[in-house]
Specification:
Bound molecules: calcium ion
Low-confidence stretches: 1-33
Number of strands: 40
Number of helices: 11
Strand order of the largest sheet: 1-34-35-36-37
Strand content: 25-35%
Helix content: 10-25%
Structural class: alpha+beta
Amino acid sequence: MYTNWIKLGLLCTGILVLASCSEPSDTAAPQQDTIPGVDTQRILQASPGAEWLSHSGGYDEQRHSPLAQITSENVSNLGVAWTYDLATNRGVEATPIVADGIMYITSAWSLVYALDARTGEERWVYDPEVDKRVGVNACCDVVNRGVAVYGDKIFVGVIDGRLEALDAKTGAVVWSTVTVDQAKPYTITGAPRVVEGLVLIGNGGAELGVRGYISAYSAETGDLVWRFYTVPNPNKEPDDAASDAAFESIGNVSWGDDGEWVTDGGGGTVWDSIVYDHVGDQVIFGVGNGSPWNRTIRDPSGGDNLFLSSIVAVDAKTGNYKWHFQTTPGDNWDYTATQSIILAELPLGKNGTPRRVVMQAPKNGFYYVLDAATGKFISGKPFGPQNWATGLDQNGRPIEVPAARYTNVPHTQMPGPFGAHNWHPMAYNPDLKLAYIPAQEIPETYAFDPLWATKPAKWNTGADFTTGVPVDLPPGITKFLRASLKGRLIAWDPVKQEPRWTVEHNNAWNGGILSTAGKLVFQGKLDGDFVAYNAETGESLWNHNLRSGGISGPATYSIGDEQFVTITTGWGSGFALITGYGFDETVSPTVGKVVTFKLGATGTIPVPDMIEIERTVKAERYGTADQLNSGMVHYARVCTACHGALAISSGVLPDLRWSAYSGSADAWQAVVAEGVLADQGMVSFSELLTLEEIEAIRAYVVAQGHNSLAEEAAEN
Ligand code: CA
């Protein structure tokens, strides 16, 4: 039963996006005194320090600050200095940028905010006015992980594929360029990085069928300078791109000619980690999963499919290939290698001399240490439970368990597609030589999708998770299964490749990490708990209830003689939407916040207004067993990602069990088939679902409503 619920958790996802987004406040604001003159040298030399100038603090992306005013001795005096209400609800994954006393952050739908970093006073807000219908292309909520700053501009990747440069002083658009084919289901959720005048940006969409790449644009003009594709052109011809030579020499031969990748894009999106290695003057980025997931469908030739699930290094100025390391050859499970990439010096050279390394804890569950100059595998060990490989060979290639290449025979696997570590930023303390991993245990049962051939459409991964799942789950099973998913903070010794200490969490989705020279590790959680741990022992020293999801990467900075710690909060993102976690009296799906702490402050975070929902089902039970089963399968496939597994919503998007639209077949059809709520993001699904399937989903949702009420009545 354990795996059954998890199966539903993942399913499909799709996409009934009922979004709501309040209007941002007026952009008129006092002008700031100085314009940030941030350049590569300043980021290299000054950060992280008093400021937080790039996504992970500095180019090495360690998320470790030398600030040490806040320590294990005084952290108990940490209090709320200020809070700021973001203009959106839904998930918030942004790490702030702090430059010249101004904080720049983003929220859902790619809104950008400039705030006084000392007081939280708003300077300006920029809304790119995204068409809400693009929300259906977002696998994991319409989130954004932050901006970049360079020169006098702020750069943001917009969920609809735009890359925009804003005037840092006013928020006015300086240039805007479309980085993707907007007819395809591309999205941008990641933070840009800027190196020597080039803005680096990738994209997402590999669940829905796109071809991945990373691009470099001129920070000054917005002109494309280079692009590196991560999978071949469908005809294996050159693209006139920086990646051409790599595909001609090593990439193309790792793909067959007759798989679905030719029409489905192949995947390999660069949706999160992009790191500048100033020593090698190279850009190192993480590549995502294959599209479709199931390699038997994607590429029956059985090749490694470069550069899926790889860490790739290219020349920073030209984008020309330098090296790659593939964590998961022939990806079959959504095992992205897009997770945090950290550069560091470890005593792994001759006689313990420093050696510059690349470290990553990708979804597949192994912690990798590679040589930064060559990509050569140094070591790799599992950082949590995994059962898909018996280990790594001397070159770092996984030794797969044969059954993991699932067929009609399902394989229950750890980790599942959520990964042993997802986007939540990892950190590294160079003084203690410890990495801090937000790790999780979320298994999945994979099987070949019997509907693959008849449903060639978005969110068709070729993997199925409903085989054998009963429509009527036993009472209480949801809570049991939810409680059984695990999350933990691991302090990992990358030299010994073993944990130093571990903190077990009470839920799976733990947040990003900040490490400081005050020997502290800060981490939030989806349930709103924000904690400071002793970096050497894992002892919990301080905590504060954020009253919303706290999963983004925190940052720290100082102004005057005060050190500040900031975390952005919000309820949503992929896991929350799917699992319905945390919707209780303290965590509300109202607007997200920026919450900033300092020593001696005594501010409070307001208790959110809870939204009262009338928990009544608007129709009597109906439907045959076959119809209900069909409803479950298609709900799981198309609706889960936004409206929640088992039709239990997170509270962010409408809970369909109580929806007025579920009360009549006509009203339901008007929404799901005809798209009458399209301007709110709930587009028509008539291309994915027949009218019979749409009505079967309604029968399933109505049944789930009655089941839930019966279960609650039995408990009381
Ligand atoms: Ca993915």
